């Protein structure tokens, strides 16, 4: 009953909380009671519900305050809060955040630099991230916007298996900008990365075991 006592002290503090009312904090003449296993007990006086909570060594938790009468359930509230916190933590851990990477190129980029930049774009798209491609014009290059446009088209074609043009090339002052979006969702890319990491780990572990088995025993 420690969870019941702790929660009672918390509520007596008078602070506004989003947590449900439990046990002595519930102030209604009767409730629609749900048992520990989800069974419908029915409408019972509040005193009877609290008595059952003591018998089961559980908490009486108001789960639907706006119902008439309010719906309450018998549960271990401390355990319920802990499991809810763990589920929320796991959900945040697996949540995919949209990330926009940026790659800057010059309109007269040499082949080696282009391959290097393209490699980064490929990696970003495989990770499920968007990529903002910026062509930077300097001096007289500003009078040749078609150079930047052709370069962006070339890059889009080179990575079309991994991404698509989400925002077409457009002039922005001295720069020309295009945004590439990944075909794979971030969650899918994360899952594939975890699977690949697990496979590599298993492969290394298997190789180590094989090497150990091949070592000759000392005489």
Automatic annotation (TrEMBL):
It comes from the Bacteria. GO terms for cellular component: cytosol; membrane. Keywords: Cytoplasm, Initiation factor, Protein biosynthesis. Residues 22-91 form the Translation initiation factor 3 N-terminal domain. Residues 99-182 form the Translation initiation factor 3 C-terminal domain. Residues 185-219 are annotated as: Disordered. It is found in: Cytoplasm. Residues 187-204 have a biased composition (Basic and acidic residues). One of its GO terms (molecular function) is translation initiation factor activity. One of its GO terms (biological process) is ribosome disassembly. IF-3 binds to the 30S ribosomal subunit and shifts the equilibrium between 70S ribosomes and their 50S and 30S subunits in favor of the free subunits, thus enhancing the availability of 30S subunits on which protein synthesis initiation begins. PANTHER family: TRANSLATION INITIATION FACTOR IF-3 (PTHR10938), TRANSLATION INITIATION FACTOR IF-3, MITOCHONDRIAL (PTHR10938:SF0). Monomer. Belongs to the IF-3 family. This is Translation initiation factor IF-3. It comes from Streptomyces telluris. The lineage of its organism: Bacteria, Bacillati, Actinomycetota, Actinomycetes, Kitasatosporales.
């Amino acid at each position: 009953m420690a969870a019941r006592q702790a929660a009672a002290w918390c509520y007596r503090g008078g602070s506004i909380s989003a947590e449900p009312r439990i046990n002595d904090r519930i102030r209604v003449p009767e409730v629609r009671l749900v048992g520990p296993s989800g069974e419908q007990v029915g409408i019972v006086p509040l005193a009877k519900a609290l008595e059952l909570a003591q018998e089961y060594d559980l908490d009486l938790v108001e789960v639907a305050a706006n119902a008439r009468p309010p719906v309450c359930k018998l549960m271990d509230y401390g355990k319920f809060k802990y499991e809810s916190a763990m589920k929320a933590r796991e959900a945040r851990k697996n949540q995919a955040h949209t990330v926009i990477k940026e790659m800057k190129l010059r309109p007269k980029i040499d082949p080696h630099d282009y391959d290097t930049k393209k490699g980064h774009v490929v990696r970003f798209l495989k990770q499920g991230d968007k990529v903002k491609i910026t062509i930077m014009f300097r001096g007289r290059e500003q009078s040749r916007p078609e150079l930047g446009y052709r370069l962006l088209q070339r890059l889009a074609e080179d990575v079309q298996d991994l991404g698509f043009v989400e925002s077409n090339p457009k002039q922005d002052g001295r720069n020309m900008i295009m945004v590439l979006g990944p075909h794979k969702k971030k969650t899918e890319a994360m899952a594939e990365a975890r699977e690949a990491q697990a496979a590599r780990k298993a492969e290394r572990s298997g190789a180590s075991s094989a090497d150990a088995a091949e070592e000759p025993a000392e005489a």
